[in-house]
Prior knowledge:
Layout: H1 2-17, H2 32-39, H3 41-52, H4 62-65, E1 68-79, H5 81-86, E2 96-108, E3 111-121, E4 124-132, H6 136-149, E5 157-161, E6 164-171, E7 174-179, E8 191-192, H7 193-207, H8 220-254
Parallel strand pairs: 1-5
Antiparallel strand pairs: 1-2, 2-3, 3-4, 5-6, 6-7, 7-8
Helix pairs in contact: 1-3, 2-3
Amino acid sequence: xxxxxxxxxxxxxxxxxxxxxxxxxxxxxxxxxxxxxxxxxxxxxxxxxxxxxxxxxxxxxxxxxxxxxxxxxxxxxxxxxxxxxxxxxxxxxxxxxxxxxxxxxxxxxxxxxxxxxxxxxxxxxxxxxxxxxxxxxxxxxxxxxxxxxxxxxxxxxxxxxxxxxxxxxxxxxxxxxxxxxxxxxxxxxxxxxxxxxxxxxxxxxxxxxxxxxxxxxxxxxxxxxxxxxxxxxxxxxxxxxxxxxxxxxxxxxxxx
Length: 256
């Protein structure tokens, strides 16, 4: 098994090196350290983990895994939930913040199979996570590029909100989006930024509940105070029950 994994490392390293310079999408800048790490040490970690369970990460078997290469990489931009809720934005890109995380698509013969997430801190890149694509993200990217190309040239931006991904691009002053979850439709269409923002705001209202104090709108200290207060009340209740029981026993004896 170790020899097979080592062979996979070697084959994948040779294959990924040939596409090293083409792993960024247009102006989607990727630090050199992140780019190098994703194709070398990060990809080695990916292969080692995937070799133990290829199907879990989107590959049919070890043979298909040996053909995998690192493809496009995208910096993840997180949509600011506060700005989304409190303002009337006309662009998701403008209310998002670039994270120190880059998501790379892992392909086999040009077909997206899995993802490799690389973090970057203090000038050092490191492995964060890997997941099976199950066709969704790769299909969304292909559809998005095709639809955007019909309108003009643009840089592809990867947005993240509530564990969901959205592709975005600005052409002139207009922004277009494609939720990854909607890309599986028979004929996916681009959404304007206004349409996507309205959709997200509606979802945000549905998931927000002021009654759930420990999750919505509370700080860590608030949560500790609530739990501590509950513990004190519970302790007093138990103490009262014990004292009452003892008192009944004493009173019962006094009447005997």
